[in-house]
Fold Putative ABC transport system ATP-binding protein.
Amino acid sequence: MTAEPLVVCEDVARTFGTGPAAVTAVRDSRCSVHSGARIAIAGPSGSGKSTLLHLMAGMEQPTRGSVSWPALGARTRDIGVVFQSPSLVPTLDVGENAGLPLVIAGVEEPELAQRVAEALALVGVDDLAAKLPEEISGGQAQRVAVARVLAQRPRLLLADEPTGQLDRAAGQRLLDALLDATEHLGAALVVTSHDRAVIERLDTHWTMHEGTLRTTESRAVTS
Ligand SMILES: Nc1ncnc2c1ncn2[C@@H]1O[C@H](COP(=O)(O)OP(=O)(O)OP(=O)(O)O)[C@@H](O)[C@H]1O
């Protein structure tokens, strides 16, 4: 039996503003993401990739159509989002940054330390736990941002141009970490990018063109 999808977008559209200044960032787009999927969404700047990801995350409301999370119910907290910029808190060390959402969610010791250590190890920055953000590289900071999301044990990880601020080698290492960690946690992964070297690392390639998503059958793992 096919498992329920994690997220389904049905004829979804998102328009910003009204009247002559209105911009339709996403139009007539439909897709579903299943457990185990590894999807790249390619497309030029301004084609609507980020907006689609925000709709999938429940961070934006569609103007038309619907977004639902059949396998998650209303638990969009099971969705983790990684942005282009790591946005670490400069006064907190790496371990504290990675654990911050868990602290806010009320997770207590010893589980807190355990989950942070696991997440930092999954992306290979466990040796940096006591460093401040200013003491680590951009690539390392982005790994910490990924660890911060992984510590929440998401079932779906949405990464918006996660390698956009990194050089080619650091970008590939970040992608290795994302692929390994999501496989380890059994989380689906959706990555937006316009970098061929990133896109080719994912199993399934979708494209955005002027706000419209073109999908292919995803090689999803279903159970
Ligand atoms: N909050 C907003 N208010 C107004 N317009 C917006 C908003 N967010 C996005 N847009 C517009 O929607 C269109 C799609 O933007 P979006 O950021 O989704 O594209 P993108 O493909 O992710 O681009 P990039 O690769 O440059 O990040 C653009 O024209 C953008 O200016």
